[in-house]
Every structure is written in structure tokens, then in C-alpha cells.
Amino acid sequence: MAFAVIVFFLNYGGTSPSASAPVSSGPAAGYQPATSARPATRVKGRGKKVNTAPRSLDPTLRYDWLKASEDTKYEGTGRNIFQAQAEIPKPDKNGTTDHAANTPPPNPGPPPPPPINLKFFGFASKPGESKKVFLSEGEDVFIAAEGEVVNRHYKVLRISPTSVEIEDVLNNNRQNIPLTLG
């Protein structure tokens, strides 16, 4: 037990040069990294030497390490790291690769406006009043007359006996919605 206490005190309880030295914020101020009993290089695996820097608990900023990391340039192989395997172009019948298939298609322009999801399923008019229709979108049911805006998005332009002409106010899209049963 006494031996374990002595070993613990020597490893963790003693003072180290980095703990007793005053901490400075600049690289000059006589920085000396803490030394370790481990070698700077070690042999790993099949005789390959791996450089290992001495480990230290010194909190001072190492400007030489920062400069070395800033000067490092990444030179990759061009492989997409987000795919399991690299794509290999397949040769054509004549032995050449098809480069036209890899080019993106030209921009066809803006996408078409979304369709109007209202359904016209009946009339709500009384004699002597203006024409009104029942429109539904999902579970919501709306009653609207010509010129009114439904669901803050669609304007009823014209009501006929078989269809309703609706304009999508946000996308400037007009569509005739036929009368549906049920």
C-alpha cells in the first residue's frame, strides 16, 4: 500500500516545470515544452516509424504548430468521400466514355406553378342572390362568390354551371375546376 502511495505521488502529486513556471501569452517568454520519458518516434506495425510528439498539459499557445497547420495544403485524390466506391465511367461500344451523359441538361426555366388543390362540389345560391359555390381543400370547406378570395390564396374569377375559374394569387396561375360529384 505504501508503495502505491509513493508511485501515485511521484506521477501525479509532484510539481512539474510547466506547473510552477509563470504562464505567458506570447511565444517568446522562454517557452520550454514539458519533457516526457517516451521517445519522440516509435515503431508501429510492420517497422514503420510514427512520430509522436511529447505529451504535455501545458496550456500555452503554440504558434509554431498553428503556423504549420496553416501552411498545410490538402491534395486530395478527387474521390467523392460521400460515396462508398468511386464512379468509373463505362466505355461505349466504340471504346470511348460518354461525356455527354455526365453533363447536366440546360436550365429549362422556372418550374411550372403548383396546381390548385381546390375542389368544386356544389352551389350555395338562393334566388335573388349572387352565385356562390362550395369549394373544398382537404378537410376545409369554403363558400365563395365571384371576386372573393378563398383561403387567402385563391380568387374566384367566374362561376359557370359546370366549372369555376380560380386564380392562384401568389403564383399568378389560372385554372378551371370542374364540378365533381361526392
Keywords:
182 residues; alpha+beta; three-stranded antiparallel beta sheet; 3 helices; 9 strands; 25% strand
Write the layout of secondary structure elements.
Elements: H1 2-13, H2 17-20, E1 41-44, E2 48-51, H3 63-70, E3 119-123, E4 132-137, E5 140-145, E6 149-150, E7 154-159, E8 163-168, E9 173-178
Antiparallel strand pairs: 1-2, 3-4, 4-5, 6-7, 7-8, 8-9
Description:
- The model is unreliable at about 15-30 (pLDDT under 50).
- The protein is about 15% helix and about 25% strand.
- It is an alpha+beta fold.
- The chain is built from three helices and nine strands.
- A hairpin with a 4-residue loop joins β8 (about 165-170) and β9 (about 175-180).
- It starts with a helix and ends with a strand.
- The strands form three sheets. Strands 6-7-8-9 form a four-stranded antiparallel sheet, with no helix packed on it. A three-stranded antiparallel sheet has the order 3-4-5, with no helix packed on it.
Task: Summarize, please.
With 182 residues, the chain is an alpha+beta fold.
Overall structural class, as computed from helix and strand content, comes to: alpha+beta
SSE sequence, one letter per element: HHEEHEEEEEEE
Indicate the mean pLDDT.
Answer: 75
Number of strands: 9
Q: Using only CA atoms, what is the Rg?
A: 39 Å
Distance between the termini: 89 Å
Number of helices: 3
Low-confidence segments, ≥5 residues, pLDDT <50?
16-31
Shape: elongated
Helix percent reads: 10-25%
Largest sheet: 4 strands, antiparallel
Lateral strand order in the biggest sheet: 6-7-8-9
Strand content: 15-25%
